[in-house]
Description:
By secondary structure, the protein is mainly α. It has 17 helices and no strands. α2 packs antiparallel against α16, α14 (323-341) packs antiparallel against α17 (424-450) and α16 (384-413) runs antiparallel to α17. The radius of gyration is 20 Å and the shape is globular.
Amino acid sequence: xxxxxxxxxxxxxxxxxxxxxxxxxxxxxxxxxxxxxxxxxxxxxxxxxxxxxxxxxxxxxxxxxxxxxxxxxxxxxxxxxxxxxxxxxxxxxxxxxxxxxxxxxxxxxxxxxxxxxxxxxxxxxxxxxxxxxxxxxxxxxxxxxxxxxxxxxxxxxxxxxxxxxxxxxxxxxxxxxxxxxxxxxxxxxxxxxxxxxxxxxxxxxxxxxxxxxxxxxxxxxxxxxxxxxxxxxxxxxxxxxxxxxxxxxxxxxxxxxxxxxxxxxxxxxxxxxxxxxxxxxxxxxxxxxxxxxxxxxxxxxxxxxxxxxxxxxxxxxxxxxxxxxxxxxxxxxxxxxxxxxxxxxxxxxxxxxxxxxxxxxxxxxxxxxxxxxxxxxxxxxxxxxxxxxxxxxxxxxxxxxxxxxxxxxxxxxxxxxxxxxxxxxxxxxxxxxxxxxxxxxxxxxxxxxxxxxxxxx
Length: 457
């Protein structure tokens, strides 16, 4: 196959896989009230249905990024799609809240294998001059998944049932597997021969696990203890990795590459302050406004549609303008949108919610593609797998933290009870507090984005 043919197939496979996981995440957010009602799940456990997936993906992403560099990115990519597809089917036939949380965790492991390799394969086959556009298309597919998720998820949940969302994933996953096996020739393993750092991977994964468990158990003493232990664990991981010859995470990339370090920190802050938006607004629209899942999905469509439309343009801009300028402008727009949502009330018109989502979508488009381009273009080819995994890790850890913050606020203001009409005032308070915290976080992120320095001379 010609070079251009390999590029096209790599982009098709990566973009298709990148569509699946955000589609699943955003569609399940719309279905959560229905799932909670069927299984009689309390507010905190309902949060775990979304968070268990993110936790697993964040725990395993960096290790699988390194394993892919050593043993082959395409091999890990195909296995990841397979696990994701099988676990999606099993989620669709789950019989309890506990079961679906465990299966969502398995789904997250498959996603880690996808995220840890997709962008790395693209970066391997596309030269620097074309990379921004390819990454922009890939990000657009992510946002297309986000776009169709609330819309189709709402329609499926309202008319067929929430289980149909999981079954919809299965044929798409099978098609991606077939295309990749049949058409994507070649393998990429540019760290072949290096040893895999199992101990570092365990320390990293356990630290993230106790971090999110700590969030779920706040404001109790055990929650505080677990959060402290997670911080200690992450510190030990950083020290441990600094001394390894073949670390699972190349700490030197952060120490000696300011563009790479600050671009990743900016992404972490961005996702920490934005991912729970759809989750919170889905609950608000269905519980407070009394809308059905289908109508809710159509309203939530506003944000990701704007992202999908503008992400390729933002990626193109980052090939011509300093990525930090475009990305920092995006972070500023996101801060404005979150500040608007911080004043949400029971009487807030739905039109105001849609306007806020449009502004948020604009900010996300301006931030994500240029920021990803800055990260991937700031490292050598042999670090593409690690850098790709870090792009996904910052996204997933940020998303996990975002849901963790929401979980903590729910635990404090609502408690471990099923959300019914008597708890609606506490729900509105929780939503406002969450958006206030997220707006403050994103404001800090503006300065991290600006601090990264210039990518080009």
